[in-house]
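During the reporting period the student researcher (J.K.) took over the structure-prediction task from the postdoctoral fellow and processed the backlog of single-chain submissions. One of the processed entries is reproduced below for the supervisory committee.
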Amino acid sequence: MAHPVYAFRLHPGADLKAELEKMVKHHQIKAGWIITCVGSLSRFHLRFANQSSGYSGEGYFEIVSLVGTLSITGCHLHISISNEAGSTLGGHLLEGCIVYTTAEVVLGTEPQFIFERELDPETGWRELKIQSAQRNRE
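J.K. obtained the following structure tokens:
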């Protein structure tokens, strides 16, 4: 049985994270991931490792990588972008990453899993919990 794959393009002015979350909710994706994303941003908003708040900037940036897990119970996404000199910056994708010309996105899904996010007392963050969809049907 084929697993659903969703391919779509985001247009200038779209908020990358908000649109990904909208797509996840619209299709009720319980276990998904980014297969690929290419495009550009005119504004970024990232959270770096071990920081409580985000960092923003404006300009023209190529999306060189977008990875992560997707679920209706929460998404965990990391992005790398490069500026006109090729310098690369990366971190946790936050709302406020605005598409400049395009964002071409392909999402994969796996119906046998359910991805959930639970507070992990060891890390202090909402971490991934993977469940079997089959077990939840029994």
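The committee noted the following: The radius of gyration is 16 Å.
J.K. will present the remaining backlog at the next meeting.
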